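Hey team,

Sharing the Putative spore coat assembly protein (Modular protein) run so nobody has to redo it. Sequence (728 residues) first:
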Amino acid sequence: MQYKREKYLKTVWILMAFLFYSPLIAMADICTSYDTKTATLHIPSVEVGGAYLWLDVMLIGTDPILFRLTDYGESKTKVAQAVFSTESLKLNIPCLDLETSLTYWADLILKAEDSNNSIDLALNDIQANTGSLVINEIVAKDASGGNDWIELFVTGQSPLNLSDYSLVDDDMDHEKVTLPSIILNPGEYVVIQATDDAPEDGSAYVPFKLGGDDSVILYQNDSIIDVFDWEDGDAPEGYSYGRFPDGTGTPRLLIPTPNGTNISSTDSSVETESEEITRPDGWEEASHGKSADPNYEMVFSNSEVKRIDITFTPEDWQAMLDDMTELYGEFGTQNSNNSPGNLPPGPMAARPDMNNGRDINFADENPVWKPCTIQFEGKEWTFVGARFKGNSSLRDSWSSGIMKLPFRLEFDKFEDEYPEIDDQRFYGFEKLSLASNYNDESLIREKVVADIFRDAGVPAPKTAFYQVYVDHGYGEIYYGLYTMVEIPSEPMLEAQFSQSGGNLYKPDGTSASFASYDESSFDKETNEEEADFSDINSLYTALHGDRQNASLWRENMEKVFDVYGFLRWLAVNTTIQNWDTYGQMTHNYYLYSDPGDGLIHWIPWDNNVALKSTGLARMSPLSLDLTSQEVNDEWPLIRYLIDDSVYHAKYVELVEDTVETVFYPERMTGIYTEAQELIRPYVVGASGENAGYTFLSSEAAFDTGLDYLIIHVESRFDDAQEFITLNP
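Structure output:
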């Protein structure tokens, strides 16, 4: 198991100072004489179990030197040796043979030698000479949006003055920050805020913030006494990273306890507000915990159709159905062939009074949330929030008497009512969507279109096919072949953008067209408690700025908006055809304000009606020409950009790139065919979808759906070639 700066062994920064008197010696000539050198070596607390100690060696000068690292046990076993002649290199040292206990400062020797004599630099007393103050715990991303912080802990036996110490961020090229004059006694803590501006309460602080992959160095006067570093994932939002136990233990994921005893997050029970919380049986950090990295391979497989089971109590299920009746009317009211006897089994079968022909519109509010149990791959998640989701896919399915309804899952939705599932995740994901593949006889559009966007360089959610079984008191029922869709949130932002933590919006409503400005049309999905819409306002202001000076207008737009990313989405979306989004509908997209580049980025959403030449009520998708007759000033993000000659030329270039690299017949025919063959056993045949839980009129319709997609890509490829020819 090679060491990678993980939870048990942390990077060791070694600062070596040398006096050089000899001329440069070639590396190949390692047998020639070496002058005696002097050096210091700092080995931190580590654990050893067949792993490696990774030394990051920094040399001053260019003369080569031979180092020998020796265990300071009775046998003085040689651990490793190497000749260094560069300014920085790494040495991988196996720790299996170390005799010395490494639960505290290691007892090691560094030997610097020449051909005639050698000097052993024993470090067996290092724990007595340093370490009276240590970096004990850090928070790099506070769950409530508060400051980052660094906790120091006194391990020595005497009081100390904090003014003798200083901190520096990341590396020793940065300026040290001397700490304030505070007397600390043995066993006491002090928390240092890490923030650009002085805290209003006057508490101690250092003028820098902590990153997800960062380090902090502690000095006593001019000597390094502690180095504390962490990688991405070590200190996620809502958790801290620190020594366990305090002062001496190996750094690990913790529950934040500023000025208090460190608590490991891996404990099966944690005391919170004097209440002991016991995790459910089977809870594992990798599958259920917030600190786990998102496991995309597990959740979003491209090579298999996985199964997920959802169980509701009969009472909760009935409450969800009653809520749907309130929102959309009686189940099956638009299908005269649906009688109570044809309804799916369960409480719905007893509901009379089918009001055929009732006019049902989109609801003004979302369906009700209820807890459920999720079973997947032999594991169980309890008290998961679930509700029905969607607009036309939900309304039309319900009114048509088809129970294949789309779901939204939120794994910590009910954590307040059930604290044992606090911060529950599904292999690193908090929220997921189960799309029903409504209005898609091929059943692959939602999955394939998201892949097309990402392949073309447009940020888009990951997707995968799933068999969905629901049990609401009548045994498990196969609800059909669904598409699991990643809901844009922290995992996706970290994976596809330069930095997470920015404002994420899901626009919906009049101002989502950007023809007007109203904050209520921009629903915040992150940073909800902060009433800051300045990024959206800046985009609206730039978009509606004076376009007479086209160069200045473009410059202002590109300061706040990923214009070329939007044009890439527009080129792909118009080529593949999708009417149910911006340009014709004021929904089905996200906006993300990336703190890393300061720009707002476009994220497409809900693609089940893409890859079609017609839309709702025979509505036609936008043409590649994007004429002012079909898309006017009511859609200024398209109209204003396409009216600009520079951006129009880029749009044409991106259409050409789309059909050359991603959306061309040979490639897409193979993708379509492979996807349908993968899901075929779960859609048609003995194990396929059943009446009342399918949108297919017949098994033949499934094959017809594939035929349509192949004809469609051939047609769109030809249309794109003609468009490119006419717009050289």
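The chain has 14 helices and 33 strands.

Ping me if you want the raw files.
A.
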